[in-house]
Amino acid sequence: MNPPVLAECRELSYRYGATTALDAVDLTLRRGQVTALLGPNGAGKSTLIHLLLGLKPVQSGTIRLFGEHAPDARACRVRIGTMLQASGVQDNLTVRELLALFASFYPEHADFDELIDEARLDDVQHRRFGRLSGGQKQRALFALAAVGQPEWLILDEPTTGLDPAARRRLWRAIQARRDAGTSILLCTHYMDEAQRLADQVVVLDRGRVLHEGTPDEIRRKVPQARIRVRTSLTGSELEALPRVQQVERLDSGWSLLSSNEVETVRALLAADQDLADLEIAAADLETAFLALTERRDTGTESTETQWEAA
Amino acid sequence: MNTAAISRNPSLQLIQAQWLNLVRTPSYTIPTLLFPLMFYSFFGLLMIRVQALWLLCTFATFGVMGAALFSFGVGIATERAQGWMMLLRASPAPVGAIVAGKAFGAMLFALIIVVVMAVLGATFGDVRLATSQWLLLTGVLVAGALPFCLMGLALGLWIKPNAAPAVLNLIYLPLGFLSGLWIPAMQFPPLLQAIAEWLPPYHLAALALDVTGAKTADWSAAMLNLGAFTLIFGVMTALGWKRLDGTRG
Amino acid sequence: MKNLWIVLIVIALAIGVLFVLPEPTDSPTESSTAAVTGAAPASEVTPPGRFAITNVRLFDGARVLDRAVVVVDQGRVIAAGRMMTTPIPDGAAVIDGSGKTLLPGLIDSHVHSFGDAQKDAARFGVTTVLDMFRPPTDFEAQHAARALIEPTDRADLFSAGYLATAEGGHGTQYGIDVPIPQGPGDAQSWVDARLAEGSDWIKIVVEGGRVWGSETPTLDAAMVQALVEAAHARDVLAVAHVSTRAEAELAVAAGVDGLVHLFVDEPVEPSMADNWAERGLFVIPTMPVLAAAHDQPGPNRMAGFGALSEKLSSEQRRSLNSAFPGAAMRSGRWPGVESSIATLHEAGVPLLAGSDAPNPGTAHGLSLLDAVIRLREAGLPTIEALRAATDVPASLFPIDERGCLRPGCRADLLLVSGNPLQDPSALLAIEGVWKNGSPVALETDAPPPSESEPGAATAEAVDLLAQPSGWMPSADDFMGGASESAIEPEDRGLRVTGTLRSGFAFPYAGAMWNAGNFPMDAVDRRGWSTLHLNVDSDLGMLRVMFFSGGNPQPVWRDIAPADAVEIDLTELAGVDLSAFQAVGVFAAQPNGAFEFVIEEARFE
Questions:
Q1: Which tens digits make up the pLDDT trace of A75-133?
Q2: Which residues of B touch C21 (CB under 8 A)?
Q3: Where do the domains of chain A lie, and which CATH numbers do they carry?
Q4: By residue range, what is the domain housing residue B232?
Q5: Which of A151, B29, B95, C433 has its CA 20 to 30 A from that of B189?
Q6: C584: which strand partners?
Q7: Considering only residues 130 to 169 of chain B, which have any Cβ-Cβ distance to chain A shorter than 8 Å?
Q8: Which chain A residue shows the shortest CA-CA distance from B94?
Q9: What are phi and psi of C594, to 5 degrees?
Q10: Total tally of structural domains belonging to chain B
Q11: Tens digit of each residue's pLDDT (9 = 90 or more) over A210-221
């Protein structure tokens, strides 16, 4: 059932001077899947990507790509297409010229016109990269990653700066390649992106893997909504409600973080019919991650139990 | 050689990319080409016409040095800042091809500078050399760009991208002057003469002068100096490249 | 892709342009370098005689250039200028002139050149000498030599040939048969005869002898004028020897072009100097011989003399060490001499450096350096003193291509260490001399006197009377005394007549015989042991004086003239037979007229 292994990291650690960017990360990436690396800025996603690509030397731990090669060998790279958070590229080359340049690095390449069409860059294909808008640049960078028809696409924050329509088109492009058999590693801080695209989600925070699993599994662990309510229930009673991950006392009542607000509210209404000022809002990522990390910091057994129960 | 094969060769593509980059950045290209030509026209053709040949050799060296230093030094530093270097390094592009593409750009510039200066010298400065001498002079200077490419590369890898243009300018002009490229080192007081003989541009100019017969030079000393210089900067480049791995981004 | 083609085209174009660039023509005067076909740089073959002296301070006869280079090829200067603007051609051997000064080979404007004088001069950086009196015997060879630009170790000789003097006048006492001009009507043919012999100009003697304490016959104004006109008719210079102001005025009035001595009986007055400047008259002050005659310190006063003196030949030493008779008495007049120089310079009269070597106290070559320094000591700026030995004589005398360092000039070079313009004694720090572009050996083969081996040099027996021309009258009037003498060859021998008068501390009058070619020439006569003398005279005593070793004090022996006398030379203390100069037979007392005949005189 398990697809073959694409890449493996074992006990991978990396430090910049005194700062620990990755802390004994264990990771298995499988072929034919979209793996999302989810985490806030500074979580270590980019560092992990750089290590996988051989842009940084391995300090401690091991990496294996395609089962055997060292990550910086050309034999590896020629099977990988990369899209990095580059603020700039050769500003003086046109989109088409850049495609031709990158295509020359690979044994085979996709059709330039198709790529340009897919990225909706037809009108600007002869324009110099430096003169593209931010969104156009992102789409062009994706095309450069894809031009070599690699087995494995590594994308670092690919939809940053894209308008919603463009985001969705890129998602479709990614899915199309996954359907065609390409493996994809995707760094993102967008939960919905991870949920929509990923077959496997790895949650990173401060250099450690917090969670790993399918999007559904993760969703259950990550707060989806914030519920505000005035109720006569006690804190511990509130904490006992299903899918509640965090309870906070406010001046005007209570604030609950829930990984499934429907279940929580149903239980809440059942428990207190006199509640008032009920507000339900989607939990923003920062809040969600804060909750996750706070949970982790406190390290209380109850927390663990809660999650397992969920 | 079919055109498809050419366009599929990463080295040729990188060379072409470098060419396009140069051609499309007139703000860099034109001063690098014009600066030494202007100086040569002014000093060698207008003011001290009798020395047109001598100054041709020394100002051509100056121009070649500048082309190499700046296309590598500033170019690399800027590209580091932009993340282009990172993208290239992550790609299957061979590292050698990356460097070669840049070196080619510098050498192409060197070729253009030397040839244009030669035309100026021959037309307005009555400089006359045998064809074999013209060719050898060009060959020596274009080949001589390589140590300075390495120097620029090393500096570009070590200096902060913002500081790179300023630092390189601070090095370029005094280095050129102290090497006797503007005023012959023989006119210097003894201390400065002694300094000049340690500097690589002095030796490259000496080889150029030797080829044209303007002044005999000690080839072994010059090659030794340029070789040692290349080695030092080669080491610095290797270390600088490693250092690149260690930095964020 | 098309861009790659563009790149290729650009490269091809650039290289193609190189093929189109013009090549040098064959003319050697291109401002670029000599054409080199073939790619080999730094040719190993150095064309003979092509060299460059680099980074040197250059005095080219007119101006001074720092950090200059002079390029010599085939005996001529082909380039001279600043290092920066003067290319050095292929194959030139490079001589580093850092810290040194390069001057044109110097010109001694007043010498008398015999024997190895030209060689000695060259060794001291004097590459051209202007001789003011010598027999024209080898002029053809001299003219031929100086017309070529061949390697040589001799200075070029230009000469007046025979001088014009009165019968019995100054110049006739040296035993040289000087043709005497017979009168103004004879002037032109006399001049023509000199020019036919090879004289380069005409020298006229106006010398009454007063300054030297005697009275000599001299040419009168009419004769001088006739000679001057005759010389000018043939487009040659007419120069005059004078020793008094009156003689100078006479000569100048007669129209001479220059004076080859400065008169010393009175200082030159500014009005006279202005007059001379207007006429364009030049003066060769000959300060070295004047200094010797005025008891001034000689060349050995100059810093650097010590090292240079090791290079003196024995002849140079001899003349240098000779004392000028009567010098002590004249020393008081020296300040006047120096002030005269200053006056002449201020008025703008061209001054030329000349030594009058090999007179006593002077030496060929060395004394010209002394002359330059003396001009400076008299008040001339150093560069003017140097011009007096280069540019000025070159502009006045017919000596093309010399005294200069411009392209086309002969490569007669003097390289000294240091800067003579700041420290004139640097002129003595000679590092190298080139004549016609080839180096001149600075050392001489002659050992210094102290090293001469004892040994039997063979000197043949000489009958002094067999060469009447070896004798000359000699009396203390030469030293400022009042006696006089005359000689006349007879069948019997040599008749010597004269009058002894008080005046000199040790009055003497008689005849002197010179052992060498020139009066007081020192020659090696170490084989001699005895002088046989037989003098017939009524005098009770005769004094025989031996001059040798450059010592002005003779060694004497008094003899009674009655019988034949043999004087054992080896027993005479102080006689240096290795440098024997002259022997004289003199009446020493009592005052009054005297007469004796030397019937026999023989060295064995």
A1: 888 899 999 886 567 788 899 999 999 999 999 888 999 999 998 899 999 999 888 88
A2: 118-119, 122, 129, 131, 134
A3: 5-220 (3.40.50.300), 224-282 (3.30.70)
A4: 3-245
A5: C433
A6: C512, C545
A7: none
A8: A74
A9: -145, 170
A10: 1
A11: 888 888 777 667
